[in-house]
Amino acid sequence: MTDDVRNLVLGVIAAGISAALGWIARTYLWRRKLRRKQAFFGLPGNSECLLVVNRDAGGDGAVHRHDVFALLELSALIKDCSAHAQILSHDVTQQGFGERTEFCVGGPVSNRRMAAHLHSLLPGVKVNTDPEPGPDRGAFQIGSERYRVEKGVAEYVVLARLTAGQDTRPVFLFCGQQAITNQAASRYLARNYEKLSRKHGTNTFCLLLKVVNSRAYGPDVVELVADVTRAAQTPAPAPRTSHRAAS
């Protein structure tokens, strides 16, 4: 074998080894990223999860189109984790939480299960459900702060990841003042889950997001107002009752 042939063979072998090492490295990084994503969402491969959808109060029992878009955003995340989703209406979901990951979409007026989750898991979050028009209709009360709806200008949504224990699957809440805010929160989660995973790991968190000028920008412009985990998990103090001494 001449030196030229030997050098050519060695070059081909070196290129093959480099390509194989590169493929192994890329595969390792992809699998590590997938495992982190699966751990954050509580969705190991081939697992089952729930998508709990609300009903549009003004749409004769139909699902609002923005909530449908939110479900599509979440379905893509679930598929990326190699998991499977079961879609259920809020009024037929009669089971506990923790066995399967759950994504619950909608406010407490149109989603009974969301109302139950807020009462049990986030007692510090109060939503004004008064059907009569007024400045506080649909407003959030979190701790001592109140967040009113300015439709199409400034609307708020609670995005939460909640767990009942270390070995239980999480519940994700998308509780918005308008249907478009539910879509905005699901899109925010899809875009920022890596950052949220690095910051919170697999722990509970509750974020308040603000959707800015949805009339012009739709669900795309979202600001993080605050991490309200502590306030949301702290029950609001009971109102004081004054007692007058009998005369």
From TrEMBL:
Stretches that traverse the bilayer: 6-29
Domain of life: Bacteria
Keyword Transmembrane on entry: yes
Keywords of this entry: Membrane, Transmembrane, Transmembrane helix
Name by which UniProt lists this protein: Secreted protein
